[in-house]
Design brief:
binds adenosine-5'-triphosphate; Rossmann fold; binds magnesium ion; 8 helices; alpha/beta; 2 domains
Length: 175
């Protein structure tokens, strides 16, 4: 990776600092960007993880597609499946009309799942299915839909710990 390319990325995103670890992280982001691989960004709070999904999306073939950032930790457990995967009219009180979820809206683009370690287990199961086959089902529906979304996720949790505590699916982690 040319050092000038890293400098360029830093300028474009307003990232400051010259730590080797920072440069290495940007280098890796540029390398994975053109692939369609799912990416998990880990690191403690405040280190600037939120820049990386954007670096990845902007340097990918999906850059003209949509980019949707979702803070999984900020959405109540009762509505997260509906937000991510959509719902059908009448599937729960307040579901007055059909709603498209982020995975349908972001078809052809990238979804950033921030604080992914906070996802409830049933939502993790739905997410695993999207990762494995691109398939999802709206809340209250029985129709399987397809989407082509690249997933970039971030967490400040110790995922090994979350897995051994039974709060995060091991199969999803390895995906
Ligand atoms: N290298 C950097 N250059 C410029 N700004 C930075 C850098 N690192 C962090 N920041 C800024 O610090 C703040 C915190 O960063 P950010 O929210 O991305 O952290 P995070 O890794 O997502 O933390 P958390 O796990 O708590 O969500 C942001 O306003 C971000 O712009
Ligand atoms: Mg963050």
């Amino acid at each position: 990776m040319a050092a000038s390319e890293i400098v360029q990325i830093k300028q474009r995103f307003g990232i400051i600092g010259n730590a080797p670890g920072l440069h290495r992280a940007i280098d890796i982001a540029i390398q994975v960007a053109p692939t369609d691989l799912s990416v998990l960004i880990t690191g403690e709070s405040g280190v600037g993880k939120e820049y990386f999904p954007q670096i990845i999306h902007q340097n990918s073939r999906r850059k003209h597609g949509s980019y949707i950032a979702v803070n999984c930790g900020a959405i109540p457990e009762g509505t997260i499946d509906s937000e991510l995967f959509g719902h059908e009219k009448g599937s729960f009180t307040g579901a007055l009309s059909d709603r498209k979820g982020y995975f349908e809206v972001a078809d052809g683009g990238t979804i950033f799942l921030d604080e992914v370690g906070e996802l409830p287990l049933p939502t993790q199961a739905r997410l695993l299915r999207v990762l494995e086959s691109g398939e999802f089902i709206k809340v209250g529906s029985s129709k399987v839909q397809k989407t082509n979304v690249r997933i970039v996720a971030a967490t400040n949790l110790n995922m090994e710990q979350a897995i051994s505590d039974g709060r995060f699916r091991e199969d999803l982690f390895y995906r």
